[in-house]
């Protein structure tokens, strides 16, 4: 296979455009002898004659014209590569893989992707749903570039592998059957529900969050039913089978408003006095957070978090 030297091909193309070795040398800031040496070397590499004498000038041979026809395609592809690389360096192109837990996908990731499609259409975001704890495993093994998780189930800020950014303090509201005696109670507190049957997951992050919130309010919840899907939980609440804590982000994200998700049989109440929260964080492998594309995705996630709960979003790295 012939040795195609890009630098020498550019000299040959310039000679074709300008017509003389002297003009070519001036344009490329070379000496005429250096131009001649480079073209002689290219001819040897390709195994063809590129130039022939034509009076006091030189003329490109048919072989040289053939070489340049193919070289133009190479030059064009290199220009495209340069443009794409520049876009990557500016964070306007490339791919960022995001791992996120289920409720974060419709509430945070989807709005962020929609905004990036509008502002940076060359930047591709690939989403992978994962449990809060599993997102860090994917991040550590290199399967995702950015992980959205819950602070309670994430490695500590001192973990040298990751750089963490707080995105959102997501309030937890309580879902009660619409006809419940406390559904319209003014100043409802979590402690007022200590004797109620509760619905939450049998294991995993949400089980721990519910237990922690209730214990902080001074009681251990009686688990009447176990479920992890919000549709199933709210259906049981509507049927009068118990009460449940629900993250506000889960009700606001996805198809439908809080009322539509809760349905007519569910009353969603804000716990003003002892409002529990779950803290949503984003993490990247330490050292990668400065990559332009990843930084743009993170900025879009912060914007989505601020829109999700004005005044609740936080923006300080940990």
N- and C-termini, Cα separation: 55 Å
Order of helices and strands: HHHEEHEHEHEEEHEHEHHEEH
Overall mean pLDDT score?
Answer: 85
The biggest beta sheet is recorded as:
7 strands, mixed
Query: Helical region count?
Result: 11
Strand content: 15-25%
User: What fraction, in percent, of the residue positions are helical?
Assistant: 40-55%
Shape label: rod-shaped
The total strand number stands at 11
What is the SS-derived class? alpha/beta
Gyration radius over CA:
32 Å
Low-confidence stretches: 253-262, 313-318
Describe what you observe in this structure.
The chain has 318 residues and is an alpha/beta fold. It is 43% helix and 21% strand. It is built from eleven helices and eleven strands. It has helices at 6-18, 21-28, 32-46, 62-89, 104-119, 132-140, 205-216, 230-238, 248-252, 258-262, 292-308, and strands at residues 51-54, 57-60, 94-100, 123-129, 146-150, 162-177, 197-199, 222-225, 244-247, 266-269, 277-285. Strands 3, 4, 5, 6, 9, 10 and 11 form a seven-stranded mixed sheet that branches. Strands 1-2 form a two-stranded antiparallel sheet. Strand 3 (94-100), helix 5 and strand 4 form a beta-alpha-beta unit. Helix 1 (6-18) packs across helix 3 (32-46), helix 2 crosses helix 3 and helix 5 packs across helix 11. The longest helix has 28 residues, at 62-89. It is rod-shaped, with a radius of gyration of 32 Å.
